[in-house]
Specification:
This protein has about 80 residues and is mainly beta. The protein has helices at about 60-65, 70-75, and strands at about 5, 10-20, 30-35, 40, 40-45, 60. It is globular, with a radius of gyration of 13 Å.
Length: about 80
C-alpha cells in the first residue's frame, strides 16, 4: 500500500490500513497508520487514555470527538482537519 494522504497540510506516507473495533460504540473502524501517526481512531496511551474509561483501549474519531472531556480540552474537535 504505497500511497500518500494529506494530513494537517502535509503529505504523509500510508504505512498500512488497519481494522479496529471501537470499544465505546462497537463500530468497525478502518484506520490508517502513517509516518505521522494514526488516522481514524485513537489507541490508549499516556495522552489519549485520560479520555477513555478504564475498559476502553480503542475509540473511533466520532466517539473521541464527542467525549465531554475531549471537547473541553480540544474545542476544535468537531472541525475536520483533513
Amino acid at each position: 500500500m504505497a500511497k500518500n494522504i494529506l494530513v494537517d497540510g502535509k503529505m504523509r506516507k500510508v504505512i498500512k490500513e488497519v481494522k479496529e473495533s471501537c470499544d465505546r460504540c462497537h463500530k468497525e473502524v478502518i484506520g490508517l497508520i502513517t509516518d505521522y501517526g494514526n488516522k481514524g481512531y485513537y489507541r490508549r496511551n499516556a495522552m489519549w487514555g485520560e479520555f477513555m474509561s478504564p475498559d476502553e483501549n480503542v475509540l473511533c474519531d466520532e466517539c473521541m470527538h464527542n467525549d465531554p472531556r475531549y471537547k473541553q480540552q480540544f474545542p476544535f474537535a468537531n472541525r475536520r482537519l483533513w
